[in-house]
């Protein structure tokens, strides 16, 4: 179902075959589709992608985000006839995205070597827990496992509690984003040489990429980062502070910013106090300084604190939830949310494609496939399969 028209996007003309499920592979497909690629999602007949059932009871809405701008075909990849059909489909693609356990494509006769014999320009994006090689490659790996191995889980949460999770599947999303980056780089290489290649994006290494100086901190300084709750140790003030009607985040840790914060609080003397005047001094008295700021914010509403921070030029912000996003004028001005009329859910609002491109922006052109294999006839007829063959494949359960 087409939702918006507009420009096709910078990837218009690029065909992606997505053979994966859950989050890591499909999110990579979503990103490519948002910017104009034609994405054909391959699902198992009958059951489809498990994400079709995930979510709040009766509301599997994450599927509607992950599946946007895609068409759905069904293929039983465990059957030889299904593997042959998949090869035929992949032969028309620029990019293949998969997030099966390493070795799965090979068992199905769909290894990169086999696929590139007749299609040397094919780009194959492989997303997995531990990567395509190494001693752990064959292990099952979900996003949380990659977050643990990559170092994320060890530093998230309060110091007196077990490691926490982010609340979203950040490991999967990071692996998908790096996979998409790899696919775009490979497209550039193919434009110059005609050669395809394989992108190997592991969950744990994708998380590792955003862990800042965690490893050098230990190797050079012998420091191991630990869970610190809402603060970053030694960086103060930077915390969430209580107001009369909610919570508010203030980041005033730079010297000049701290001076402006003190003025806004009516406590200019704090900026000149040797206990707080420098970054190092504030870090040494972090809890003490947070208590002083919390005492001030507790007597004000969120609106009052925000007005003071905006006037003073202090980086600060509300703790947003969905209703706040829907009501916020900046979200509206930036078109950060896309609203459409969905055939099943009615009014439907979700995040817009990102980042913003000035000449060839992304768009939501099609809602997620509502039925497994709903585009079988259209896609397979375009491959040259006669209607009788499509019907035969359906009768035998291959599609």
TrEMBL record:
SUPFAM superfamilies listed in its UniProt record: CoA-transferase family III (CaiB/BaiF)
UniProt-listed Pfam families: CoA_transf_3 (PF02515)
InterPro entries in the cross-refs: CoA-transferase_III, CoA-Trfase_fam_III, CoA-Trfase_III_dom3_sf, CoA-Trfase_III_dom_1_sf
Gene Ontology MF terms: transferase activity
Keywords: Transferase
Gene3D superfamilies referenced in this protein's UniProt entry, alphabetically: Crotonobetainyl-coa:carnitine coa-transferase, domain 1, formyl-coa transferase, domain 3
PANTHER family (alphabetical): L-CARNITINE COA-TRANSFERASE, SUCCINYL-COA--D-CITRAMALATE COA-TRANSFERASE
Protein name, UniProt field: CoA transferase
Organism: Phenylobacterium montanum
Taxonomic lineage: Bacteria, Pseudomonadati, Pseudomonadota, Alphaproteobacteria, Caulobacterales
């Amino acid at each position: 179902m087409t939702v918006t028209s507009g420009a096709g996007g910078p990837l218009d003309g690029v065909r992606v075959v997505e053979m994966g499920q859950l989050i890591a592979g499909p999110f990579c497909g979503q990103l490519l589709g948002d910017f104009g690629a034609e994405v054909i999602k391959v699902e198992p007949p009958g059951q489809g992608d498990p994400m079709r059932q995930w979510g709040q009871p009766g509301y599997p809405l994450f599927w509607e985000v992950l599946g946007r701008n895609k068409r759905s075909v069904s293929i039983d990849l465990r059957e030889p006839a299904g593997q042959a059909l998949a090869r035929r489909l992949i032969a028309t693609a620029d990019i293949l995205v998969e997030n099966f356990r390493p070795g799965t494509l090979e068992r199905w006769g769909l290894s990169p070597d086999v696929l590139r014999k007749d299609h040397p320009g094919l780009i194959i994006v492989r997303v997995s827990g531990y990567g395509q090689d190494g001693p752990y490659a064959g292990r099952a790996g979900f996003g949380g496992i990659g977050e643990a191995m990559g170092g994320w889980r060890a530093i998230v949460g309060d110091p007196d509690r077990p490691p926490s999770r982010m609340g979203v599947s950040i490991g999967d999303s990071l692996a998908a984003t790096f996979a998409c980056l790899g696919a775009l780089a490979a497209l550039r290489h193919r434009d110059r040489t005609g050669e395809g290649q394989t992108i190997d994006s592991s969950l744990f290494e994708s998380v590792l990429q955003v862990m800042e100086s965690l490893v050098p901190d230990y190797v050079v300084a012998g420091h191991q980062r630990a869970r610190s709750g809402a603060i970053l140790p030694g960086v103060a003030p930077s915390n969430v502070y209580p107001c009369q009607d909610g919570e508010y985040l203030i980041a005033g840790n730079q010297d000049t910013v701290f001076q402006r914060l003190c003025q806004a609080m009516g406590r200019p003397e704090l900026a000149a106090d040797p206990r707080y005047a420098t970054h190092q001094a504030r870090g040494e008295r972090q809890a003490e300084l947070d208590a002083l700021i919390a005492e001030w914010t507790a007597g004000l509403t969120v609106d009052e604190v925000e007005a003071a921070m905006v006037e003073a030029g202090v980086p600060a912000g509300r703790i947003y939830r969905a209703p706040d996003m829907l009501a916020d004028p900046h979200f509206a001005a930036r078109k950060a949310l896309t609203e459409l009329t969905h055939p099943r859910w009615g009014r439907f609002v979700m995040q817009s494609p990102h980042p913003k491109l000035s000449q060839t922006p992304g768009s939501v052109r099609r809602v997620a496939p509502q039925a497994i294999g709903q585009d079988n006839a259209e896609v397979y007829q375009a491959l040259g399969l006669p209607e009788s063959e499509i019907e035969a494949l359906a009768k035998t359960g291959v599609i």
